[in-house]
Amino acid sequence: MTITLDYSAKLILITGGGRGIGYAIARALASAGGTLAITYTHTDASDIAKALCEEFGVVAKAFKCEASDSKDTDRMVQDVEACFGKKVDIAIANAGVALWKDAHAMTDDDFRRLFEVNTYGPYYLSRALVRSWLDLPISVDPDVSQVDIKSINKTLGKQILVVSSISGLVAMSPQRQAAYNASKAAVTMLSKSLAEEWAHLGITVNTISPGYVATDMTTSDDPKLKEWSREWNYRTPVRKFASAEELGKFVALLVSDQQGGWGFFTGSDVVVDGGYTTL
Ligand SMILES: NC(=O)c1ccc[n+]([C@@H]2O[C@H](COP(=O)([O-])OP(=O)(O)OC[C@H]3O[C@@H](n4cnc5c(N)ncnc54)[C@H](OP(=O)(O)O)[C@@H]3O)[C@@H](O)[C@H]2O)c1
User: Fold this and answer.
1) Can you name one GO molecular function term for this protein (predicted)?
2) Check: CATH 3.40.50.720 for 11-272?
């Protein structure tokens, strides 16, 4: 059987698509012809989008959007639709932040921030998208709680994939990251809940839970990080990190119509961790 990845009919939105895992996913999908909307918040991704267009002959655009801000997310989804003249087909909620800090020392803001970006962010994005897909006003200001979506029967053929983490399954160490772990556990459960709630609409919602991937989040010249890094390698049975590129290609397979994207794959958490959680 030959599997050909063809995303030429798909508009794919990737949050945090300018760097790390998000960029690798964007690159893999661009190489298969996808039209891309990539978001960033600090590091302008416009040149990255331009380079993807030039290298792969696709259309890719960058949009500034703070993932933890629901109004900004609503606006961004509207801007993406207006820019491309169509609705998003596949959304990858990838933007995330980590914090290594002892639980006893975290401030309220530290703890809140992790949830705002890692948990609320994917929720805000999913909510904006489902409202768009159902032709409801994207902004939550008009109250649509009277709309009984259980009675709507559609086969929209849309996908949401959230980049969670094995940190939502096991308490990673030796670094202390209770807020990160909890925010990822929450987003994994949130995604399962959305999958159940929206299954009859033809919307699938899944998470991937990677183990350690070499990105800015996990690599630097900081001696402490280097020491942890050796420990992380040791604790990963395959004795290495995944590269962002490997993960990007994996996701491109997962959400393709020929693989996960045919509508039955939903409510799942795909663990891809070099065996870390087997121990
Ligand atoms: N690396 C790992 O080992 C690993 C393992 C498991 C799961 N993950 C998850 O994978 C995802 C990507 O991580 P990564 O390793 O690629 O990290 P990264 O290299 O630090 O990149 C993070 C990305 O998220 C974006 N972002 C961060 N905060 C944001 C915010 N408030 N609003 C909008 N965008 C924001 C960043 O945009 P800017 O460039 O504009 O800052 C950047 O594109 C995260 O959800 C992370 O938790 C990573």
Assistant:
1) oxidoreductase activity, acting on NAD(P)H, oxygen as acceptor
2) yes
